[in-house]
UniProtKB/TrEMBL annotation:
Taxonomic superkingdom: Bacteria
Family statement drawn from the similarity comment of this UniProt entry: Belongs to the arylamine N-acetyltransferase family.
Protein name, as recorded: Arylamine N-acetyltransferase
Matches recorded under InterPro entries: Arylamine_N-AcTrfase, Papain-like_cys_pep_sf
Length: 262
């Protein structure tokens, strides 16, 4: 069963529990350092990954905290959102379309994340993104916000807001676009049932069914991401990528990302 004290102990959080911006940053960072992204249990499901989007916080807690496993976006975000709600934060579900090939964005329901309203400001909260992104919440503002040598900002593009990221030696690139519209979990259930026939979903489902495994975790000074055999280390404002051709090296990186070598 979901238990706040057990959850916080798992994250290693020992500070105050007041719903402040500082605590939000600390909880977000610790969550991403402790609970990895891991789609290995879901890689064969295709769009059926959304079948259990409404499984509830007790199910997610059992898997991610009690069993110490990693998860995918709706599991990670759903569990963290439950924690923030228990601690008194004003938190809602939103969605985004991720930038893909050719700088095109996927459908608005491609990814699940959260919005926190705090002290007159709005914050993007996302502990479940399978890509290099922020490790602490980002204010929804065009002001540049720096983390681990990378810059972030949120700009307006027509009806959407766009999260952008810039490495120390690079240019601004979109991560995903979103709106502040509050979403219902039933909208993702409709995708799993086939009611949403957006062709981008079929493409994404085929990629998942192809067996692409994705693992990711944050550490003190950066972020690790493994997509198939492509290994990305984002640290000190630089993205360093290479292909892990040797099986033993690949397996060692998987264990490291999943904290199985601790």
């Amino acid at each position: 069963m979901f238990d706040v004290d057990t959850y916080l102990k798992h994250l290693g959080h020992t500070g105050t529990l007041d719903p402040t911006a500082d605590n939000l940053r600390e909880l977000h960072r610790r969550h991403m350092m402790t609970v990895p992204f891991d789609n290995s249990r879901n890689a064969a499901k295709g769009l059926a990954i959304w079948d259990d989007v409404d499984a509830g916080r007790d199910v997610f807690f059992q898997s991610l905290i009690t069993e110490g496993r990693g998860g995918i976006c709706h599991e990670l975000s759903g569990l963290f959102r439950a924690l923030l709600d228990e601690l008194g934060y004003d938190v809602t579900v939103i969605s985004s379309g991720v930038r893909g090939a050719g700088d095109q964005f996927g459908p608005d329901l491609e990814h699940m994340l959260s919005l926190v309203r705090l002290d007159g400001e709005e914050w993007l909260v996302d502990v479940g993104f399978a890509g290099p992104s922020f490790t602490e919440p980002v204010r929804i503002s065009a002001d540049v916000q720096s983390q681990n040598g990378f810059d972030y900002r949120v700009v307006t593009d027509g009806a959407h807001l766009v999260l952008e990221r810039r490495p120390a030696d690079g240019e601004w690139k979109a991560v995903y676009r979103f709106t502040l519209q509050e979403r219902e979990l039933s909208e993702w259930k409709a995708i799993a049932s086939g009611e949403n026939d957006d062709p981008f979903w079929h493409w994404a489902g085929e990629m998942i069914r192809a067996g692409t495994l994705i693992y990711g975790r944050v550490y003190e000074t950066g972020q690790l991401l493994l997509v198939g055999r492509r290994y990305l280390r984002a640290e000190d404002g630089r993205d360093q990528a290479r292909v892990l051709a040797k099986t033993d090296e690949y397996e060692a990186v998987v264990r490291h990302v999943l904290r199985q070598d601790v």
